[in-house]
Amino acid sequence: MQYISTRGAAPTLAFDDVLLAGLARDGGLYVPDTWPRFTAEELRSFRGLPYAELAARVMLPFLGGRVDEQAFRALVRDAYGSFAHKAVVPLVQLDERTWVMELFHGPTLAFKDVALQLLGRLFDHVLGQRGERVTVVGATSGDTGSAAIEACRDRERVDIVILHPHNRTSAVQRRQMTTVLSPNVSNVALQGTFDDAQDAVKAMFNDQPFRDGLNLSAVNSINWARIMAQIVYYVAAGVALGAPDREVAFAVPTGNFGNVYAAYAARAMGLPVAKLVVGTNSNDILARFFQSGTMWANGVTPTISPSMDIQVSSNFERLLFDLMDRDGAATAQVMAEFRATGRFAVSQGQLARALALFEGHRCGEAETMETMASTYRETGYMLDPHTAVGLHAARSAKLDPGIPVVALACAHPAKFPDAVEQATGVRPGLPRHLSDLFEREERLSVLPNDIDVLKDFVRARSRVAAGVA
Ligand SMILES: Cc1ncc(COP(=O)(O)O)c(C=O)c1O
Ligand SMILES: N[C@@H](CCOP(=O)(O)O)C(=O)O
After folding, report:
1. Which reaction does it catalyse (predicted)?
2. Which of 44, 322, 386, 401 could tie 253 with a disulfide, CB 3.0–4.6 Å?
3. Burial of 134: CB neighbours in 10 Å, binned 0-12, 13-18, 19+
4. pTM of the model
């Protein structure tokens, strides 16, 4: 198994190099050169497996022998042993055809833990073997940051700097990041949007001397290993609901397009996925794309689902690469056009191919509140605002009534207590390990959206830059 860049001009890498590389050197994102495929018999044999065993079986083909199998299995067992629910990603049935898959039983209460608990351990394993250190730099709209910090805190070979948009996350999300006072962790509150933060991270990766001087690594979903670990829960839900003998649809609240791209990957590996329903909040660039075939950014609006306040969805490039028949030069050209003009369009044929699988729906603020309220009233189930966006999209979608739909519950309601309380009348409480979150000391640096200032900050926090052996 080798990995190629979506822009076709970076070196082909093996798994362990991709894990540490983050963004490809040509600015593209790494994808597997071919998709491993499971037969129907293999998929049937996955039914009823413990999550860690399923995870190992789904991910092993991606390693290409570059991580020892027994060591990998131990990392996977350890990663998912830290989850509060024995099923790791349990399914809850809401009505006769709709399930919610709870992805928030990890330590920071969002789906990011599913991949990042493994990623932190993989970093340690691979860096220990190589005798190397890395400087991780990441952008977050609220959830990746805390999950990455939790996964990397106090790791000997990793320094981590996370950029979040100042005053645009929930207070719980911010405190989950800024109250971690480990010496290898730094938080930047960037005076800008998530898109500005993501842009700054990519600019650091695209500055080759800076990148090499700090041994930069990524925890965002530009890192292939994030996607790899997220594929597993789609397979888990699919086989639990009857795959490969029954198709399943997924409704995914979407921002950076990483989560729904993992579902696309699961389908490429043989899971019978009938439809992928993309739910956006009022930052609806993706919903507009799936309706028109044109992607155009029109500014980020703050919403009650702040983790999805994103306009430039970085993983869309991985789908675009396939829509362009894996032509890296053509993909690079479209991405350059988007960067220069804030707009690009695909052909009618490419749009038709995308629409054979995807469907996009926007969920405004009132609809998000109404979905949280009515679901609680009718079923007693409490949704966080992001999950509500996905569920609303599921209900708006044109789906075959015989096919089960899984709506992804990407965050615990207690991460967004104000919006949830306003919708349901009940204030969700944090679990015990976070019950004193608001009494903990915070540490963060508020910085302007200036790439030189940000680079200086990251350099100063990097033990690689300081020459520590
Ligand atoms: C709670 C929550 N829901 C949905 C999303 C959107 O996921 P993605 O960016 O993978 O599309 C995010 C952020 O990524 C999130 O934190
Ligand atoms: N919603 C995310 C944004 C970053 O997405 P990622 O999947 O690329 O890490 C967040 O919570 O930070």
Report:
1. O-phospho-L-homoserine + H2O = L-threonine + phosphate
2. 386
3. buried
4. 0.98
Distance separating alpha carbons of residues 414 and 59, to the nearest angstrom: 31
Break the chain into its structural domains and give their ranges. 91-109+227-424
Low-confidence ranges of the chain (pLDDT < 50): none
Which residues lie closer than 8 Å to 389 by C-beta, 6 or more apart? 253, 279, 280, 281, 305, 308, 363, 368, 371
144 Cα to the center of ligand 1, angstroms: 8
The rounded mean pLDDT for the chain is 97
CB 429 within 8 A of CB 416: no
Rg from Cα positions in the chain = 21
pLDDT per residue as tens digits for the range 5-59: 999 999 999 999 999 999 999 999 999 999 999 999 999 999 999 999 999 999 9
CB 139 within 8 A of CB 201: yes
Ligand 1: list residues with CB < 6 Å: 110, 143, 221, 253-259, 307-308, 386, 410-411
- Tens digits of per-residue pLDDT, 230-283? 999 999 999 999 999 999 999 999 999 999 999 999 999 999 999 999 999 999
Which tokens in the block code for residue 20?
């540490």
Ligand 2 center to 219 CA (angstroms): 9
Tell how far CA 339 is from the center of its chain.
22
Q: Taking the domain 91-109+227-424, which CATH number applies?
A: 3.40.50.1100
Contact 32, 23 (CB under 8 A): no
DSSP state of 307: G
Give yes or no: 112 in active site. yes
